[in-house]
């Protein structure tokens, strides 16, 4: 196989991965809290080869040598954690984060993180549990408080969440809201290390220290300058940050590049066929 065919096949493989990334983004354009994926590429076996003495002509200003590469490959797939559009829902259990942060939740496999704040109050079915509901995701994963315990709201009370993530239960017949906890929110310091899981969740890969990936935020500890890292918004949801226009533009570019690589592969195969026929 000649160099042109190797380069074309390598490029086609990387472009197919990029097309898969674009397809995943488009499929989740209406998924609340979804963060678009981006693909980065790197050269494959790039070498600088020296040219012969015949290329050393008088007056030449450029260095001798030329770059020989074997196409490009998919280097990594990263998440774009930029803020999506916040929309008002008027639902008390819908909570959005305005800033760089994730809710921490408890699943059957362990703790995980989620950006989507479409929560609900589910009856607490644990033995001996007091009447009331605990805050969960729509898939049933328990939303954790700062004390690593579920957020509980008693029957007959409404959920209230302020901009600092403090959770209250409120009943007009009782009086002032009663604080029952604080949402546990983390900031991804190295989001590229987070691994995508089912139910729009993120998990820390096995063997990776937690402190290397996320930092637990304490929004109630307001800094001297009053600038909080994020704000909690009740009654709102964050939409996906996928731009369908940008994805379609990337799709056209990737398809055109794939077609060019496919033509180069076909041309290389044709030349090999001609060479074999001449030798025969």
Describe the 3D structure.
This is Flagellar hook-basal body protein. Keywords: Bacterial flagellum, Cell projection, Cilium, Flagellum. Pfam families: Flg_bb_rod, Flg_bbr_C. InterPro entries: Flag_bb_rod_N, Flagellar_basal_body_rod_CS, Flagellar_FlgE/F/G, Flg_bb/hook_C_dom, FlgE/F/G-like. The protein is 23% helix and 32% strand. The model has no long low-confidence stretch (mean pLDDT 86). With 280 residues, it is an alpha+beta fold. The strands form seven sheets. Strands 7, 8, 11, 16, 17, 18 and 19 form a seven-stranded antiparallel sheet that branches.
Largest sheet: 7 strands, antiparallel
Let me know the average pLDDT.
86
As residue ranges, the low-confidence spans are none
Number of strands: 21
Task: State the shape.
Answer: elongated
Order of helices and strands: HEEEEEEEEEEEEEEEEEEHEEEH
- Rg value: 27 Å
Summarize the structure.
With 280 residues, the protein is α+β, with helices and mostly antiparallel strands. It has helices at residues 3-27, 210-213, 244-279; strands at residues 37-43, 47-49, 66-68, 72-79, 86-88, 95-99, 102-107, 110-114, 119-123, 132-137, 142-143, 152-154, 158-161, 166-170, 178-182, 185-188, 195-196, 201-203, 214-216, 230-234, 236-238. Strands 7, 8, 11, 16, 17, 18 and 19 form a seven-stranded antiparallel beta sheet that branches.
